[in-house]
Amino acid sequence: MKKTQHLRTAFFSRRRVPDCPVYDLHGHMGPVYGLHINRESAAQADAVLKRNGVRLLVFCHHAALLCPDIGNAANIVAVRAFPERLRAYCGINPNYPDQIEKDLTSFDRYPDVYVGFKFHASFHAIPITDARYEPAWALADERGLPILLHTWGNDPQCGYTVIRQVAERYHRAPILLGHSCHGAWDEAIRLVKDFPNVYLELCAVMDERGILERFVEELGSTRIVFGTDYPWFSHHYYIGAVLGSGIGDEDCRNIFYRNAKRILGK
Amino acid sequence: MRLKFIDINLAFGQPVRAGYRPAFTAGDVRRVMKQAGIAKALVWHVAQHDLAPADGNRLLAKAIAGASSLWGCWTILPPQTDEVITPDFFRRMKRHGIVALRAFPDYHKFLINRVTFGRFLDEVTERRIPLLLSLEKGGITWPAVYQVMADFPKLTCILCDIGIWGVDRFTWPLLETYPNLYLETSLLALDDGGFESMVARFGARRMVFGTNFPERYPEAGMLSLIRADISRSDKQRIAAANWEVVLNQMRV
To answer: Which residue among A150, A265, B137, B193 is buried most deeply as judged by most CB within 10 Å?
Structure first.
């Protein structure tokens, strides 16, 4: 089939392309230690999403990952204030097993808020194979809920070796590899080939021109999802990068919204 | 009407380490510029970083000879070693269409300060030749940037590849203090709200457009600027006009 690139023209000539919504499956919210965030609040996020044609941002608030004293309450407040365009991952910090138990016990009280879980093993310095994550893995796997992992190379906490170990155990939960094992591109591709519930996510992947093209060439585009780390990074920067890769319109559509809708059951 | 884009952060040549998809020749760069809609560019050769500045500078000069859409940018080393900076340096710059300089002090193992570059950078400052410093590519650290600006406060300096994580906490104090300091936009464009907050605080005059091609996709930074919530005239300043002002002030 001939590869078309009409979307490139469309996004460069219009702010929003109505027949090509964007689902961002890797976001955050709130202030964070290492940088000045220009737009921290849920209200600002909602305005940006609306203006830029981003249909849904699935995020995990920085406080849910980095401040146990606030925790997932920040996610709940943000989504309930702006339910049209926001959903959250329930943040899991394995340093606090009692809090995990509370979050999982109350998980079903927030079907309007949560779509799945976020593990950031690099922040928490505990590998994703650790038993303290087990209750969240089990719940996600039982229900087929996505888990967004921060992944990087072969980092001992969150690299391809430990990802393989969990993928061998959990077959129903979509496992979204945030940053696609950044730098270990061949191993990331191998994980997707070996495990049908593993997906690549593009945040930081687009730092290196040519990697997305390799992913699509080797895997097709049905196992790649769009993500930006918003509000760290700009949606239009990433949209431009995907369009600039020269992959075809059908591949772009899979990445921008079709795969996400399938994972989220929409 | 479409924005006119001039890209000041483009490279070509075969990099020592394979990774990103490289642009092998100046011809490759021109093809991508045409496809993306970039009118002109300030380019450098990766050998200026990977091998040795003098050899890279020669490769660059040869590659851009006769290419009207490309300006050249040479890499410098300390004057004391006579590897790059010789008595006829500025004449050679002019002869080869070189309009800007780069330095990679960390990677090339030297300090960029008054002790090392006193008279030379005084003359560069006087001639208003822009010096590009990359915060990536093993270029320079933030303390070293602060030092070079303290030593040469009127230097026309363009900070490139400013960092993956937002760096306002580093750049805003510099922008407040040094009026001839500019930010290249390839990573500012990555920040959500980066253009808007810069324009609100400093106006649009302190940014010059760059893409960091071929490591990054030109369309990424272009679309980010096109969709920024700033005026069209500010976008045009950033996309091309600010660089044209810098260029017009430069005397080789």
So the answer is: A150
